[in-house]
Specification:
The protein is mainly β. It has one helix spanning about 60-65, and strands at about 5-10, 15-20, 30-40, 45-55, 70-75, 80-85.
Length: about 90
């Protein structure tokens, strides 16, 4: 009997579980592209004036519906995402 692999998909902003199941399932959510304000440059992670770029990520319904800006800090694809109210 072979072991069954289970994958859990979490929200890249708040970390809540979005989905859990077979990684080959057609129901598995796809990563989507969102416009994100980056607060660091992507080579070394040094702070820079915020700039707008696309990031492929998973968002739960609550974070997607917030209608506020997503900010990223990190470098080379290892980013931490958070939500900031507009104007901050």
């Amino acid at each position: 009997m072979s072991e069954k692999t289970i994958v859990t998909v979490t929200c890249d902003v708040c970390g809540c579980e979005i989905w859990s199941g077979d990684p080959e399932s057609k129901d598995k959510p796809r990563r989507l592209d969102f416009l994100v304000w980056f607060d660091t440059e992507q080579d070394e992670g040094k702070g820079v004036k915020p700039y707008l770029s696309r990031a492929s990520m998973n968002l739960c319904g609550k974070c997607a519906d917030e209608g506020i800006r997503i900010h990223a800090i990190g470098a080379m694809g290892y980013n931490d995402y958070r939500i900031k109210a507009v104007g901050r």
